[in-house]
Amino acid sequence: MSRHAPLPMARTRRALALLGAVTLAAACTATEDPPGSAPATTAPATASTSVPPTDPPSPSASTPVTIPTSAFVELPAELRKSPRRTTPVEEALPKLCGNEFGTGGRQVTASAAMTVTYQKAGEPSSNVPQGMIHQTIFTFDGDGAPGYLSRLRTAVQACPSYDQSGNRVTVKSKALPGVGDEALLLTRTWPETSLNGERTGDTASSQIAVARVDSTVTVFDDQGWEGTSGNPAILDRVVRDGVRAIDAWQR
Q1: Paired residues of 97 in beta bridges
Q2: 34-75, pLDDT tens digit by residue?
Q3: pLDDT at 106 over 50
Q4: For the chain: N or C, fewer Cβ within 10 A?
């Protein structure tokens, strides 16, 4: 004979009904997710761990370079016809026989260009400008800066003259001492023409200066107004002031 008294029949039926309801509810909650919904996941409980911070990049790692406006030369007020303005690099770089000044290669880390428009000191503001100077700045990795100057010298030597708008332009180059770590001065000369395009019998000229300051190279392209001659004295001042501005930026 059992020591436990059997449950009354009513209580047994109620227990079986309750068990069936629980089983049915569990079955309903285990259905598949509707189409397009992300499956629900429960993250496993894990012990909290401390992750050491990532080491900062080493000084030798390649990082983006930004060339500030302060790295570019600004004309003194008496020579400034208009404020300096941003210029696309491809438009600022001069071209002789080809793309001599666009040979920076993969070692270029940044490039930018600005243009200044100048006038003769003391001239009234109503006068036309005397010319404008495009300045381009390149920054390089490794030995890219001296390599650029070396390639440029070779390219210029291979281009003693070229044709431009039907005129023969001759090119002469020489070292520019006392400017940066190294510098090059190019002089372009061509037959002068009037505003009507007729030759006057004289010659016109303009200059290009290229200077290296450590791992930075800057190119100055002096262009006289509407095809006239540039101003060598102003360019010389701009080049030396420009090198000082780059040197101050790099410090």
Answers
A1: none
A2: 333 333 333 333 333 333 333 333 333 456 789 999 999 999
A3: yes
A4: N
Sheet holding 199-213, edge to edge: 80-86, 108-118, 131-140, 216-224, 199-213, 182-193, 167-175, 161-164
Residues 6+ positions from 102 with CB-CB distance below 8 Å: 90, 93
Predicted TM-score (pTM) of this structure = 0.74
CB neighbours (10 Å) of residue 12?
Answer: 11
Return the structure tokens found at 3: 């020591």
Centre a 10 Å sphere on the Cβ of residue 212 and count the other Cβ atoms it contains.
22
Cα(19)–Cα(27) distance, rounded to whole angstroms?
A: 13
Q: Which amino acid is at 101?
A: F
Closest among 136, 163, 142, 153 to 218, alpha carbons compared: 136
Helix (H) or strand (E) run with residue 16 in it: helix 9-29
Q: Show Cβ contacts of residue 67 under 8 Å, excluding neighbours closer than 6 positions.
A: 110, 111, 112, 137, 139
Cα(134)–Cα(206) distance, rounded to whole angstroms? 12
- Under 8 Å between Cβ of 178 and 186: no
Amino acid at 207: Q
Query: Are the C-beta atoms of residues 243 and 180 closer than 8 Å to each other?
Result: yes
Mean pLDDT of 166-195: 94
Pairwise CA distance, residues 167 & 128, whole Å? 24
Burial 84-115 (b: 16+ CB within 10 A, else e): beebebeebbbebeeebbbebeebbbebbbbb
Contact residues for 99 (Cβ-Cβ < 8 A; gap 6+): none
